[in-house]
Structures are given as structure tokens and as C-alpha cells.
Amino acid sequence: MSIITVQNLHKNFGGTHVLDDINFQVAEGEFLTIVGPSGCGKSTLLRILAGLERQTEGHVTINGRIVDHEPPYLRNVGMVFQNYALYPHMTVFDNLAFGMMARRVPRPEIRKRVVEVANLLGIEQFLAEKPKILSGGQRQRVAMGRALVRDPVIFLMDEPLSNLDALLRERMRMELRHLHEKLHIPTIYVTHDQTEAMTLADRIAVMKDGKVLQVGTPEQVYHEPQTEFVAKFLGSPPMNIVPVDIAHNRILPVNEPGYVTTLPDRPDLSKISRVSSVSLGFRPEAVKFVAPSHDDLKIPMLVDAIETLGARYHVHGHWGRTPLTVVMNEYRPLKRGQSLVCAIPWHQLHWFNHETESRLPKLATEPFTNLVGSPL
Amino acid sequence: MKRTILVYLLRVFVASLFAMPVYWVFVIATSYHGAAYQLPPVWRPLFHWKPLVFVWTHTPWARYVFNSVFITATTIVFVVVTSAFAGYALAEIKFPGNTLYFYAMLGVMMLPQQALLVPQYVLMYHLHLLNSYAGLIIPFGASTSGIFLFRQFFLKLPVSYREVARIEGVSTLTYLRRVAIPLARPAVATTVLLTFISSWNQFQWPLIMTNSPSLQPIELALSHYMQAYQSNWRDLTSAALIALSPILIVFAFTQRHIVSAVAGGDVGQKE
Amino acid sequence: MNHIVPSHVETLEPIKPKIWQRWREPLVGYGLILPSLWIFLVFYYGPALFLLYISFFHWSIFQNRSSFVGLHNFVILFHQPIFWQSLLNTGYFVVAVVPVTTLLAIALALLLREAAGLRKGKVAQTLVFLPHVTPVVATSIIWVWIFNPNFGLANVVLHLLHLPSLLWLSSVHWALPSVMIYTIWHSLGLYTVLFLAGLATIPKHVLEAAQVDGARGWLTFRRVLWPLVSPITFFVIVLASITTMQTFSQIYTLTGGPHGGAGGPAFSTTTDSLLIYQTAFLYLHFSLASAMSLILFVLILGLTLIQKLIADRFVFYR
Fold first, then answer.
1. Is C242 on the interface with B (CB under 8 A)?
2. Which of A166, A302, A376, C213 has most Cβ atoms within 10 angstroms of its Cβ?
3. Shortest alpha-carbon distance between residue B26 and chain C (Å)
4. What residues of A are in contact with residue C4 (Cβ under 8 Å)?
């Protein structure tokens, strides 16, 4: 059974669609990350789930109960804010106990519960301290603890790690994942950081302009991105996407006949060429430089620069006028202006309809329908 | 460097010019009888406390001081509570009329007080508030500057503070009492100080709204005393000293805060 | 990912929020503004409206009868020489006090500010501000003594300057100026502090740039300080005008007592506020007093508006 279900959710704010027909659900014990650029509506979505804002249309179901008009405290969610929102004049203990005190929970029970949670998170030695003296990571833990003491049905986290420095962020990420595996409380985690989204999630929802573009496991969204945006947003360096013209077995960047190359001989080839405008995508790390097979697409790239990252190298160059970036695992001497043949295995190629920016269906299995003929 | 010395000398001169009259209240009150008539004037205080004790014990100053203290203290409590409430509503709560009320409450400052006294008196008469503590307190129980101050302060609190409370099921009143107001200590301090000064210095309102000596606050009593003891300067200044001392003591300890509060400085800053 | 909506919620009808749910938050807001709202309405806005009403009625607090008399109250008022005298006195008071206060406040602020090689005169600032927080009656007592023609300090100073002695509060010509002196003493600190706050907001680099350009003294002030300080000047002038127009306590206290009823000698210190007070609460002519109040109300509002208009044209806003 799903813990939280979001159905046809819309949010309009002064004429603009902040959220546009959002649908997804979170299963028992699942960790869902919502990732997208700033302003995509992900935080608004989280706040609607918490009840801090109200949707314009659609339903939110928590634990089988429709909560559309329920105030936040009846939804039994635990929320962790980006700035932690710890009350600076209260001790850690009081911060953790504040909600229960206000609800008139008996003292001994409050004490028991707070100590339990503090032990779990390793903050028991700070209970008598004010948040001011705590480090960023400790404050983060206290904020987690406050969400946890209520024994919530679901955790809602709004960029909880973005106030920490890079090193600490990585450590807290691991801690969070450990905690989740220990407690199995379903979690919705909003972030703009794709690494965080990928490493923490059971499933990822990618958002842009108030829409959920794709929901799936990290593998799914990485290997089968449904839109050009998802393809570019996840993965670093981002996927190379080149609008191309295709004629017979020849492929070239749009309107640049000087850079034509040959497509491998595939039975499903004719199906791509029937789409009016196509974009070709491939990940920088999918490129091979040795032992190309006849199934590979070979792209002649002119090298612009090479970046050394230690373990690997980023080669920046261009194919026609389109800039490309590829990852090289072994050093080879390259000069500016030199031509480098990049071989990409057929199954590593992503094809998109350039007009709709959406993924073309799996070539080998699905037949093309309703597609206009090639312009060439 | 000559110019620097000149500036400092000028500063000393100006400062003593302004402080002198207040200083003289003290000199004459604690001096010998007839010191007020000396030419050239007396400059050094003699610290004779007898006249002060005499004035205190032979006229009901204790009563007047009590009245002032009671009226001031109650007014302060009223103002802090109403200001914190309204300031919070204006800053954090969306309700139809929010902006309207903001301007309406600022508009109170535009109403000329002297022009309102007659209708206010009639109103107090009909509400049976003449000659009552309530009549001296309630009309001053709300303050535009107090509300404004609290509003500015609450606007600076992170929104998430309140959202945490909403998620935890903490009522607005509890949140105000346990979180918002304790965090707004600088705003509370400023409001208390400014209300203290204006309330303690009240004169015209009690003059019009009361005629019973037992209700008189100290300033009003002092003006009656002044008419009765026209030229008994030592007793007069002793009485004035009683009215002045609380203000002087509070000002001595909080002058920096008061000055920056009046100048619209950064007293609203959160800790 | 298509089938993500489970069957058990698919058939749900949209639910309308209950009324109390929609109004919960606004009601809390209304509850919180209520304590101050009713005070403002009952004790300030109410009387303001009531003033409009009673000015056009013949009316007494001791009778329940009242009758509409139109402009009658104003006609009577305009036939009273003392009314015109009070307006004249008020005008004199404002026209003398406001410019002097403003200029002195600017001068003091310049003297006390932090400048090249000079620290801010904090102690002096505090002492200049001190009179503003003192209760008017308490400090009036010492000023009555200072203004005493026989042994007061004011005449001692005049004597030192080889000037003739004055009767001060007992003189028809000098009583109002005496009150002006007290008023300036009592309020100057406030305006000085306002100017100091304004000067403190001027970025150091602006002043330094002016000095590098060779501007000194008057020119620095005229070209650099003044444009930046003029909005505060405007504010100070408005505030000072509105406050001085309504001066009551010090006039009542300084001119009462030994000099007969307040406002003397010979009505030379009877300003509008004082006349309203006396008409209403001494002679119990409430209708006349209301008519006067309404005129004062309109005058003050008009003054504010005129100053606003002037300021909009001339004041340099950053």
C-alpha cells in the first residue's frame, strides 16, 4: 500500500501554473527524491504535502486518508527545513520537546522519547545546549530529531543538506541513507543537487516548470531519460545532445554537410530517419577510443581543450558547431584542432524528437507510427 | 589640531548647556533654604536630603508616585501585548484587511491629539471613564509605533519557525508566547522604554480626565503643587526631583538604546 | 510509470473545504488585531468623526438635547478676537520655533558627528537628548526659576553680555519667546539625533571623494551632505511643525501659577491648544471648542499636505 498518493495536483499562483498536473506515489519504506532546477515548483509541492500551502486542484492522500483540507499537524508528517528552523533561544531538548509540550504530552513520556531519538542520532550530549554552539552537521541532526520525535508517517525534507560544506554534505548523505535503512520511514526529499538525488533515492522524480517529467529508479532515469531535459540534468558532465539530419545511412549535425559520418547498418535505422527532426544523445562516458566495432557510431570530433581531473580526463571539442564533452579514462596526448574519432556503441545512443524533446521509443522493439517523412 | 580642540570645547559647552537645568533641579533641591535667591547662583550641590524627606512625608507624594507607577506599568503591559499581537498578525498572517489595518493604524499618528481632546472627553464622560484608572490607561493601551516595531521584527524571523510550529500542532498563542515574543526581546525592550517615558510624562490627559487628587499621577500633582507653593523653590525642586528621578535613572542605564530607538536605528535587529 | 494512481482513490469526489477551515487563519488574524483595533477605533477614529458632528451642533455635555446649528459655532468663533489672537500666537510660535530648531539641530548634528580625526560625541549627544525625555512639568519648575526677573539665570546671562534685563514670562513681549526657549531646549535633542542618524547613513567614500575633489567646509555641506540629508530635514520640519502647533503642557505650566491663569500675560501666550482647553474645560463651551478643534485639525492636515507638495518638488530623494 502506498503511504502518500498525489493525484492531478495543480497549484496556480496569480495566473502562473506553479504546479501542473502532478501524479506520483510513495510506497511503504520508500525514499523518493524530487530533483529539479530552482523555481521548478519542487518546494511548493513539498509544502502542499505538509499542508503549509493549499493546492488549487487535486488530491493528496496520506496513509489512505484524503488530507486536502487538513491542517499540517493532523497529517502527521515530519519536516526538515533547509535552514533547520531550530529555535535559537531554546535548548536542544526543548527544541525536540516543543511540539509534545504544546500538545500536553506527559513529561516523563516526552523525556523518554527525546532521549530515545537523541541516542539514535548521537546528539544526547547536546541536549542541554543551545543550537548556537552546535556545528552545521549537529544542527542538521537536531532538525532531523525534531521531525523524528513525532513518530511521523512520512519524512518531508526540503534541501536539508544544502547549508553544509561539500565534505560534510557527503558524510551526512551517507548518515541519512543509513538512518533510512534502519528506520524505513518513507521519505520525500527535495533537492537541486543531482548527485544527492541519485545516491539517496529508491526512486527519483525529475521536475521542471511545475511538471514532473519522469519518475523512476536512478537507473531508469539515467539510462532511459524520457526527455532531453532529464538526460541533460542527470549525470556529470551532462549528456551531449546534437540535433542531426539523417539521410539513408548518413548522419550529420543539422545543416553542416561537411561533418557527415556513416551510421552503422541497423535494421531499425529507417524508423529514426522518418522522424522530421531528431536529436542524438550520448553520455560523455559512453565513448570508446579503442577497438570500435561495426555497431558503433563514429563521430569525428575536433578537440578544443583537455581537462585533467586526476582519475580521468574531460575532452572538450565540437562536431560541426555543436560543442561536445567526452570522458577519457587513459591519458593520450591531444592537440587543439586535432581530430578525434569517438565511437559510441549503438545501445548507448539516445534518440529524441527534437521538436517535443521527448525520447523516441525503443527502436528495436517498438514500431514507429504517425511520423512524417524525412526532409532529405 | 586647533580645530579639533575647538570642536571638543564646543561639544562640552553645548552638552553642559543642555544638562544644566536638570542639574540645577538637583542643586537647589539639596541646597540650603534660600539658595535659589543667591546671586551669583549656587553651582555646587550640598546633598541636604532633609527637604526632600520633608516634601515626601508632608504631602501625599507616595500616593502620586504609586499612581504613576501603577498607570505606567499597566499601560506598558497593555502596549506590549497589543503591539506584539497586532504586529504578529500584520507580519505573518494573511487575512482580508491586513493592509488596510496597517495603514489605519499608521493613520492614528496623523490625527492631531489636541484637536481630539474635546470629543475624547465627551466619550470618556459617556463611558463613565472620567476619574478612573481605566480612563488613564486604556486609551494608551495600543501604540502605533509599538505595532510597527513588532511587525518589522517579526517580518525578519524565518518563515520556517512558524511552519515548524504549524506542523507540530502548536497554537498561534503558544507560538507567540514561547517563541515569537521571547525572540523579539529587542522589540519588547524598545516598546517598554518608549511607553515608560511617554506614560510617566503624561500630563494633559490626566489634567482633563481626572479631578480627584487620589488618582493624580505625579506630573499632574506637581503642577498643582507648583501653583500652591509658588516660590518655595527648594520644596518645588524637591518635588520635581521625585518626578524626574525614575526617568533619569532609567535613561542613565538605557540611553543608547533609547536614542537609537528614537532615531529609528537598528534596535529591531534580531540577536 | 503510467499506472501510478491506485484504484482505491480513483473514485473520490472533490471535497469542498468547510467554512471554518477556510476562515481559520483569517480569524486568528482578526483575533490578534482586535485588542489594538478597538482602542484605535473607540478612542481615536471615533472621536475624530464625532468631532465633525459636534462642531455643527449646539450641544452641551450636561443636556441631552442637541440641535443642528450649521456654521453657527464657527460664526461665533470668528467674532471672538481671542480666537484670532490665538491663531496669531500659534503662527508666531511655529514660525519662530521650527526654523530655529531645524537649523540648530543641523548645526549640532554636524558638531557632534563622527568626522575626520573626530570621534562621535556620544556623551554630548546623550546630554543634548536628555531634556527630551524629562517630564515637562518637572523641568518647567526650574525654567520658571531661570526666567525669574530678579534672581534667575536668564538675566544673569544678559547682564554678563551687557544687555538690559528682561521680565521674561511676566512680559507681554517676552513671555512667548520664553516658552519658545524652553520648547527648543526640550525638543532639540530629538531632532539632533534624527539628523545624526541621517548623517551616519552617508557612506564614508562619498565624503572622502568630495574631499579628494578639493571640496571643503561649506561646499562639502552644500554639495554632498545637504542633498543626502534633505529628506530628513523635510521629515524634521513636518514633525516639528505638527508638534509645535499642538504645544500645550509647557505653555500651561510656564505661564500659569504666579502670572495669573495660563496663557497670559494679557493672552500673549494663548495658543490654539490652550484656548481649546480653556474654552472646553474651564468655560465649558464644548461646541465652540469643537469648532476650534476642527479648524486646528484641518490646519494641521493642510500643513502636512502643503509640506508634502513642496517636498516632492525640491527634496532630493536617494
1. yes
2. A302
3. 10
4. 23-25, 215
CB pairs under 8 A between A and C: 33
**C26 chain-A contacts, CB cut-off 8 A:** none
Would you call A51 and B170 a contact, using CB atoms and an 8 Å cutoff?
no
Distance from CA of C289 to the nearest CA of A (A): 52
User: In order of start, what are the domains of chain B with their CATH numbers?
Assistant: 1-48 (no CATH), 59-262 (1.10.3720.10)
Note the pLDDT of residue C63.
64
B204 in reach of chain A (CB within 8 A): no
Place C86 in a pLDDT band, splitting at 50, 70 and 90: very high
Tell me whether B111 touches chain C (CB under 8 Å).
Answer: yes
Q: Which CATH superfamily is domain C74-314 in?
A: MetI-like (1.10.3720.10)
Query: For the residues A297-306, what does the mean pLDDT come to?
Result: 90
Q: Is the pLDDT of residue A371 over 50?
A: no
Q: Quick one: DSSP state of residue A366? A: S
* Helix/strand/coil percent split, chain A, to 5: 30, 35, 40
ipTM higher than 0.85?
A: yes
> DSSP letters of B174-206?
HHIIIIIHHHTHHHHHHHHHHHHHHHHT--HHH
Where along chain C do its domains lie? 19-71, 74-314
- Residues 134-193, chain B, touching C (beta carbon < 8 A): 138-139, 141-142, 147, 172
Looking at residue C203, what is its pLDDT? 75
Grid coordinates of C166: 528682561
Cell of C160: 554678563
- Of the candidates C4, C12, C15, which has its C-beta nearest A23's C-beta? C4
In this prediction, residue A111 has a pLDDT band, given cuts at 50, 70 and 90, of: very high
Residue pLDDT, tens place only, C38-60:
999 999 999 999 998 888 877 66
C72-76, C80-84, C121-125, C314-318: lowest mean pLDDT where?
C314-318
Q: How do residues A198-224 score in pLDDT, each as one tens digit? A: 999 999 999 999 999 999 999 999 999
Q: Which three cell numbers stand for residue C2?
A: 503510467
Number of H helices, E strands in chain C: 15, 2
Is the model's pLDDT at C285 over the cut of 60? Answer: yes
What share of chain C in percent tops pLDDT 90?
35
| Cβ atoms of A72 and A66 closer than 8 Å | no
* pTM, entire model: 0.85
Decide if B163 and A52 are in contact by the 8 Å CB cutoff.
yes
Cα angle, residue C152 at apex, residues C146 and C154 outer, rounded to 5° = 70
B2 inside 8 A of chain C by CB: no
Fill in the amino acid letter for A271.
K
Question: Does residue C15 have a pLDDT over 70?
Answer: no
| B231 chain-C contacts, CB cut-off 8 A | 258
Long-range own/partner contacts, residues A182-186 (CB < 8 A, 24 or more apart) = A183/A148, A184/A28, A184/A29, A185/A29, A185/A78, A185/A152, A185/A153, A185/A154, A185/A155, A186/A3, A186/A4, A186/A26, A186/A27, A186/A28, A186/A29, A186/A30, A186/A31, A186/A32, A186/A153, A186/A154, A186/A155
Q: Which of A103, A153, A156, A158 to mutate to test the interface with B (most CBs of B within 10 A)?
A: A103
Residue B95 in this model has a pLDDT that exceeds 50? yes
Is residue C169 classed as helix, strand or coil in its secondary structure? helix
Contacts of B102 (CB under 8 A, 6+ apart): B90, B151
DSSP annotation of C137 reads H
> Counting one residue from B and one from C, how many pairs have CB atoms under 8 Å apart?
282
Chain A residues with beta carbon closer than 8 angstroms to that of C13:
none
Q: Which of B1 and B121 is assigned the larger pLDDT?
A: B121
State residue C117's pLDDT score: 66
